[in-house]
């Protein structure tokens, strides 16, 4: 039997204390980034730089400025090992060029966490707990997961973690990083596996990056869609 988490308990989200004095933003966004053993040092650098470029892009900042509070809060998690997802950048407010520079600096400076592969369900659980305890309030709470392979070794399957998170009011979107024509062990493109096993919630979607050099473009389009 697979282990159940606190997220699966009825009313777990509703029972969380409400931080009435917490600042309000339009969206709480956790970027769940694949740091598993399939990614070498050069690919990891490209990935980090792609996230930094996307988060500071003028079109993303413009999308944020179009929202009522003109701000979102962003955190970054690296995942891979079963039960080993790690927060590498805690929630930071993103609203303008100055806050974007601070966020980019934190993203680029964070040491790479030690991960094996490939526990997507456990990553979803980790991100859901972060959103539950976030120091900001927002009507929209989103997990944005990127990866180059399917769930393989989670303590709780991705589908179970996904269903619990969605039941708690979260949205999970995905970025499939896969070369054109690549298929998973299920004989389908990675995006289809993520569509079936990972994403969930109202308006959830999958986008594809052809490789890590394409992450900045794909993530930029994905952030604009999520924010605006």
From TrEMBL:
Keywords recorded for this protein, A-Z: Signal
The VWFA domain, residue ranges: 28-227
Protein name (record): DUF1194 domain-containing protein
Keyword Iron: no
InterPro entries recorded: DUF1194, VWF_A, vWFA_dom_sf
Superkingdom: Bacteria
Signal peptide (residue range): 1-20
């Amino acid at each position: 039997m697979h282990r159940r988490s606190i997220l699966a308990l009825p009313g777990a989200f509703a029972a969380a204390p409400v931080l009435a004095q917490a600042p309000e933003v339009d969206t709480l966004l956790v970027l769940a980034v694949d740091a598993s053993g399939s990614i070498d040092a050069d690919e990891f650098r490209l990935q980090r730089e792609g996230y930094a470029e996307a988060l500071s892009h003028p079109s993303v900042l413009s999308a944020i400025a179009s929202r009522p509070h003109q701000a979102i809060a962003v955190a970054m998690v690296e995942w891979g090992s079963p039960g080993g997802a790690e927060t590498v950048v805690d929630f930071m407010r993103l609203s303008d060029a100055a806050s974007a520079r601070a966020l980019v600096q934190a993203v680029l400076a964070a040491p790479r966490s030690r991960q094996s592969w490939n526990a997507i369900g456990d990553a979803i659980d980790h991100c859901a707990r972060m959103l539950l305890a976030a120091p900001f309030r927002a009507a929209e709470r989103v997990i944005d997961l990127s990866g180059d392979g399917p769930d393989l070794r989670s303590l709780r399957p991705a589908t179970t973690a996904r269903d619990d998170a969605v039941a708690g009011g979260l949205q999970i979107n995905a970025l499939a990083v896969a070369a054109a024509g690549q298929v998973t062990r299920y004989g389908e493109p990675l995006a289809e596996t993520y569509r079936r096993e990972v994403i969930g919630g109202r308006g959830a979607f999958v986008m594809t990056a052809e490789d890590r050099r394409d992450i900045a473009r794909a993530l930029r389009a994905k952030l604009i869609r999520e924010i605006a």
